[in-house]
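Q&A log
Question type: sequence-to-structure
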Amino acid sequence: MLEGKRQKQVAGLLNKELSDIFQRLGLNMIDGGMVSIAGVKITPDLFDARIYLSFFKVKDNDLALKKIEEHAHEIKKELTSRVRHQLRSMPKLTFYIDDTLEYAEKIDKLFKEINEAPPISPDGGKNGKEQSPD
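Response status: OK
Response body:
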């Protein structure tokens, strides 16, 4: 389903503000790795927001996500104070690990395997020679 204009506006606003909040709270660097907001998707009723996080060189993505979720109340409180004049109500924030890079790498690997595989001849591997029964 396509996003409406208002959904895109709110998602863009939340993305920008969350990036600033993550930097201010020091959540953009976890366990020697980098965390960034990969995207924000919001429901048509503007009550639920899915925040997709991208982790770069983080040792344990699940542990990093848990650490961010522990700060969820503080993040939401800060976000609410920043967007209170643009939104009537604050959406419920849910954090997810963005796995699009891993998915893209997996697809690339599959394409490389396909390209490296020996081609199958159109005659079913008979090499054009008919064998007569003896």
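Response note: Helices lie at 5-25, 61-70, 72-83, 100-116.
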